[in-house]
Amino acid sequence: VAGENFDQSPLRRTFKSKVLAHYPQNIEWNPFDQDAVNMLCMPKGLSFRTQADNRDPQLHSFIITREDGSRTYGFVLTFYEEVTSKQICTAMQTLYQMHNAEQYSSVCASSSCSMDSLASSIDEGDATSLAKLQRYNSYDISRDTLYVSKCICLITPLPFMQACKKFLIQLYKAVTFQQPPPLPLESYIHNILYEVPLPPPGRSLKFYGVYEPIICQRPGPNELPLSDYPLREVFELLGLENLVQVFTCVLLEMQILLYSQ
């Protein structure tokens, strides 16, 4: 388990994650920092879900800035896949049995009851809370399907967010669709790593993903720097007044700290 979150139910806890594979193994000008990438891909750690939970894929991005000021950009698609290990499923059920036993004990302790008069001394509110506990805070290996979070990430020298997002979504579909893609998955990964070049400044580049073509555009020397992030999302997240205030602070060269979950 990652962090001190044992009071949470097991499906709400976070667990330690690790990098399963990365390609290529290493690049001289951009050495792979496994710990940093692992933390940035899953900042809250590994998480589990059941069929009753929302498991929609989520996309986020990050920036690694080195001491010399150079940057690399990461684009991450997090999704949930079914746990096939019987051992992990059994361990999750055991965690729930231990957690519910502790919760049951705390409810009994709060009602100041003895073991002999347990049934009669729990008041109606405690009984209701116990019923809710068993209904929502449970995992039954024979009834529920367990899912675990997983990430696929692209690390790039320029922030081509839209192109990376489209490629990752297509790659995810290729993994989850019943109908396999025209070529093996390794072909598409090799293509984007070794065969798709950076577009020259001021030019566009069209390359083929798994199912559909993808276009990325690089601004020219006299244009504004590449900013592939949708402004609409900024307005939705911050609101108009906050965004105007942040922009004013930028123009006044004030220090700005954005804090979020």
UniProtKB/TrEMBL annotation:
Keyword annotations from UniProtKB, A to Z: Guanine-nucleotide releasing factor
Residue ranges constituting the UDENN domain according to the UniProt record: 1-261
Leader sequence residues: none
Any Pfam family: DENN
Cited InterPro entries: cDENN_dom, DEN5A/B, DENN_C, Tripartite_DENN, uDENN_dom
Molecular function in Gene Ontology: guanyl-nucleotide exchange factor activity; small GTPase binding
Protein name per the record: DEN5B protein
Organism: Leiothrix lutea (Red-billed leiothrix)
Gene: Dennd5b_0
